[in-house]
Amino acid sequence: MQPYKSGLKPFSQDLRKQMTNAEQLLWSRLRRKQVLGVQFYRQKPLASFIVDFYCAAASLVIELDGSQHFEAVHQVNDKKRDQGLAAMGLLVLRFDNRQVLQEFDEVMQVIFDVVERQIPPGPPFSKEGKTGP
């Protein structure tokens, strides 16, 4: 798990209570290990940021952007944020809310494909459910 500034925790908890429609829809498919059995977290503090969705196993951050992110100042801030997260070894996927709401299956396919590429292959399982030969 990545470190974070502890002062961000109350803000992340508030954000979880105020999720957008797009965030709620995406969370309904990311929660409970529905994507290749990996755990996702929502509104997760990482370093000095709060990311929309985070998957430690895949070193993946998913950000959903509202219309304000099309403004130049937000694009500059998003680029800096993405660079900071990339410096931590994290891949950042960005979707706008419209994509999630109108092209949900396509968004989920992108996420599935990225998670599949990002997670390291696990050891094989024997018939008894134990790892190894």
TrEMBL record:
Q: Please give the SUPFAM superfamilies that the UniProt record associates with this protein.
A: Restriction endonuclease-like
| Pfam families (UniProt xref) | DUF559
Domain DUF559 span(s) in chain numbering: 9-115
User: Is Nucleotidyltransferase one of the keywords UniProt gives this record?
Assistant: no
Q: Which domain of life is it from?
A: Bacteria
Does the record bear NAD in its keywords? no
Q: Name one GO molecular function term.
A: endonuclease activity
Alphabetical UniProt keywords:
Endonuclease, Hydrolase, Nuclease
Q: Which Gene3D superfamilies match?
A: VSR Endonuclease
Q: List the protein's name.
A: Endonuclease domain-containing protein
Its source organism is Iodobacter arcticus
Q: What is the lineage of its organism?
A: Bacteria, Pseudomonadati, Pseudomonadota, Betaproteobacteria, Neisseriales
